[in-house]
Write a structure and sequence with these properties.
Helix content is about 30%, strand content about 15%. The protein is α/β, with parallel strands linked by helices. It has a single domain, classed as NAD(P)-binding Rossmann-like Domain (Rossmann fold, 3-Layer(aba) Sandwich). The protein is globular, with a radius of gyration of 19 Å. The structure holds nicotinamide-adenine-dinucleotide. Nicotinamide-adenine-dinucleotide binds next to helix 1 and strand 5.
């Protein structure tokens, strides 16, 4: 079965494509490569296109709804404190109403802090610019950036920094496969938190990077960023109940070890790897794969309504 993975050339999407392939599905990546990488598309074809290109999307599938929160449960009130949070909530509402109107099934997977890299070292995080704590701390430990800024020294946490729930990207990827199988099995649409239920402070992360790399991480204290919540920790119990999902790779040690290994071996060369295209490019107008179920790198799986006469 072919699965459309929007944003599949990106960090979470590419790990999801690998997990889908390992589970026996064929991931078809749909990505405009604004942030993603050709080299991260290894397990199926790449359709280069923008989600705003309706004609191309229709060409690739049937019409489908474009997808797109101590401890925080799914029923926790959603009061976004940033345009980013508002956009996530809006897409969940779109999905809900699309499901009501057209009978499409969907899963909204609420990632907490995605981190780490593929344990086999094939793919990993490569954002430009990189702003996430773990990769920037690794870069600082390796002397590739002068310093890591630690925000929020006035937080009333034991070490004065914010607490985040870091979840390994491969655990997120595997949750997409379980969510797909759940929907295929007739499961009901739902929103699920994907996190570990445990928070780590910035200083705990820095200490882990120093242990794993054997290098000191230079830090600079900075003022708390407005709109930055102090504690963001998931209650992942519902994902456990609904999908039997539990994180396997999300200890801080494993996260930092896999991220560090990826970074040392691949990341410096990765930005020059774009010509290495394992996937087949599909041009507009060319016959495209038919897909009935869609997964996205933005945390959502959508069942694509079938077309009359379409075969799976
Ligand atoms: N990384 C995290 O910790 C985290 C946590 C929570 C939620 N999220 C959300 O998960 C999603 C993926 O995050 P990521 O870290 O993998 O990001 P990413 O930038 O690595 O991947 C996003 C991919 O989407 C592609 N893309 C962007 N706009 C597009 C468009 N209009 N048409 C087609 N493709 C497009 C990009 O080229 C990129 O490959 C994002 O929506 C992000 O907000 C990420």
């Amino acid at each position: 079965m072919r699965i459309l993975v929007t944003g599949g050339a990106g960090y979470i999407g590419s790990h999801t494509a690998k997990a889908l392939a390992q589970a026996g599905y064929e991931p078809v990546v749909f990505d405009n490569l604004s942030e993603g990488h050709r080299w991260a598309v290894k397990w199926g074809p790449l359709v280069e296109g923008d989600l705003s290109d309706g004609a191309l999307l229709r060409h690739v599938v049937a019409t489908y709804g474009i997808p797109r929160s101590v401890p925080i449960t799914e029923s926790h009130s959603q009061i976004p404190i940033s345009p980013y949070g508002e956009s996530k909530r809006a897409v969940e509402r779109f999905l809900y109403w699309y499901g009501q109107a057209y009978g499409a099934d969907w899963m909204a997977l609420r990632y907490f802090n995605a981190a780490g890299a593929d344990p086999d070292g094939e793919i990993g995080e490569d954002h430009h610019p990189e702003t996430h704590l773990i990769p920037t701390a690794i870069q600082a430990a390796l002397g590739e950036r002068p310093v890591v800024e630690i925000y929020g020294t006035e937080y009333p946490t034991p070490d004065g920094t914010a607490i985040r729930d870091y979840v390994h990207v491969t655990d997120l990827a595997n949750a997409h496969v379980l969510a797909l199988q759940y929907l295929l099995g007739g499961g009901e649409s739902a929103a699920l938190n994907l996190g570990t239920g445990e928070g780590k402070s910035v200083r705990e992360v820095i200490a882990a990077v120093e242990r794993v790399t054997g290098q000191r991480v230079p830090v600079r204290e900075a003022a708390r960023r407005s709109g930055d919540p102090r504690v963001l920790v998931a209650d992942p119990a519902k994902a456990g109940r609904v999908l039997s999902w539990s994180p396997q790779y999300s200890s801080l040690e494993t996260i930092v070890e896999t991220a560090s290994r990826w970074h040392k071996v691949h990341a410096p060369a990765a930005s020059g790897l774009d010509p290495d295209i394992p996937g087949r490019l599909i041009q507009a107008g060319e016959e495209s794969p038919a897909a009935r179920y869609a997964m996205t790198g933005s945390g959502t799986a959508v069942e694509v309504p079938s077309l009359e006469g379409e075969q799976e």
